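Lecture 7 notes: from sequence to structure.

We start with a single chain of 738 residues. Read the sequence below before looking at the structure.
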Amino acid sequence: MFNNPLLNKDLIEEREYQLDLAAEALEGNTLIVLPTGLGKTVIAALVAAERLSSRPWGRVLILSPTRPLALQHLSTFRRLLKLEAECFQLITGVLSPSKRSELWSGRGRVFSATPHVVWNDILSGRLALEDFVLLIFDEAHRAVGNYPYAKIADAYVSSARDPLILALTATPGSSEERVGEVLSSLKINRVLTRSRDSPDVKPYLAPLRIRAVRVRLPPPYVEALNLLKSEFESQVSSLASKGLISLGREPARVPLRTLLELQSKLAGSDDPESRSALAGVALAIKLRHLMGVIASQGPEPALDYLKRISTVPRRGKSDRLLLGLESTRRLLNLLKEAPPHPKLDALRSIIARKLGASAEARVIVFVNLRETVESVYRCISKIPGAKPVKFYGQAARGGKKGMSQSQQKRVLEEFANGSYNVLVATSVAEEGLDVPEVDLVVFYDPVPSEIRHIQRKGRTGRGRPGEVVVLLTEGVEEGMFWRAVKREKAMPKVVVRPPTPLTEFADEGREADKKKSQEVVVKVDTRELQSPVVRELSAMPDVRLSVVRLEVGDFVVSDRVAIERKAADDLASSLIDGRIFDQVARMRETYERPILIVEGRDPFRPAGRAVNPRSLMGLISTLALMGLPIIWTKTPEDTAQIIRLIARREQIERRRRVSIRKAPTRSLKEDMERVLASVPGVGIETARKLLKHFGSLRAVFNAEPDQLVEVKGIGEKLGKFIAEFSKMKYEEGGNEEA
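Now the structure, written as tokens:
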């Protein structure tokens, strides 16, 4: 394997464990669990070289959660594999769909991409997976819930002629349920693991020391937390009195998860009392959040949070309740006078000692909130010899821009070459990024997730001895820290389990073939790709989406049925700008059975639009009189189910094919008729009579009333109105309803 002609051997250190893992991964769909810094990407390159050299027609696809990671992997593969430059392609959302289509169909052999873009390109038909001989899932622990990894794996194994999956992670999860979901989602039939204590890995890792440093909150913090605790207990007690939650001995310990689940449940309820309790639940969640921020981060992020919600133009009810509390006003005064968080003093001491011991030392400080980055950065800037730099994500937060990809890359390069020696980073530096090895990692705050805990630790203790220090607020954060440690220790027991037999997946494939005959096709407009309805449809095993640009409708389920979906806000907007009538008219002209789905819990009172409910009721009645079937749904899930059921009725029961009809091309003659028919009181038939009589629009609008009444169907009143209407000034038209 190491002598593969596609490998740049001079750039790879020959490590026995990497060769062993790569050789085993060639035998079937494999999850490799390996500590950070031990070369998971090198193993992937070894497997890729074998697959590409033995299958000259084949291609490789590497999936990574973020654009920087995708770029990093492409650079590594370009360095390790002997292929022409044009064989390596980066596919992310920065590229236009047409450019991506061009690259997918080009001469590329190694593609590095982000999963959401890949899934969209599969749906739209831009990407065909038949020739891909290896699919690599980096950070494979993400393959849970609705993350696209699972859907891409499904599409791959069902369409590739010689599929092989390689999944990579340092941290698959600590529960059997989570690990099981990852294995099932990615069609894994073998799990290969190595830990820091594995004999073949140990020689490549240096000692790692981990310690916790506890700090005690000063009196102003305690007073602020007591204020919030009292308000929180009042809110949850009120919820308990309504029978919405049950309280234990300590109301202040109601889990955040309980409140979030209650919030989700109430949001989906039609009961007015339940809906009215939503603001109380949201307020309790905000109070809980504030307590956590003050205890673990300090006054600055808490003040930023309160300032942010006070300046939002359209505040929610819970925000108004929070800002209106007497205790919030007292809290603001306390926070403004409170000293900096004691963690900052501890952090200053820890970093000063490390840099004092070695001028070449490198340090990473991880913080949970971007708002905290600034105060930590200022604190470290005062340490002699410290050269800190900030590192955070690309998304804008709280009105502040994120870092661009090029800025992130430059910061990491300058940190590596010594221009900076302390990296103050958010979670963006935890996962996969090629952050240089460091001597010290500081958790400014602990993380409850064992996955993030392991990823943070993995930034040190690789080639040289490393140290991890976790700062803990006494009485607040210790539990979170020890839970993560406990879950990390439980992980090896969960991961090491008997591999799933290959025959099980073969059986699944045969079962899938049987089900394919019961599969329905839903054609979806490209502009609907990001809608929750499409996400719901894509998760249905008996629905296959085909993404196309539709001239008419949002979905087509047969040669005669097109469906237009309108959320309540969109319905109101289309009434205001008048486009709904044109959309409906075009659907009726193009398809035999057009359908309108109106989605929303109260479509006559859309949240985002100030529209008179009677106007919307009038619109619906008009559409119904035009002969358009209207279906009401409450949620995107309901809408997706309705579309699926209609598709099944048309394609399976009635055996109708799915085809897209072109909207009839209107002639200039028809356009003239429509312009004249839009005059109040003039329908399409009357417009035709007028145009036939006068010959042109100009002649009609220049005609006097006595000339207009000569046309059959034009009375004296209408003739007079048309003549006046054509000469009416725009300002005279007003905005009142006719």
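Residues 497-516, 734-738 have pLDDT under 50 and may be disordered. Keep this in mind for problem set 3.
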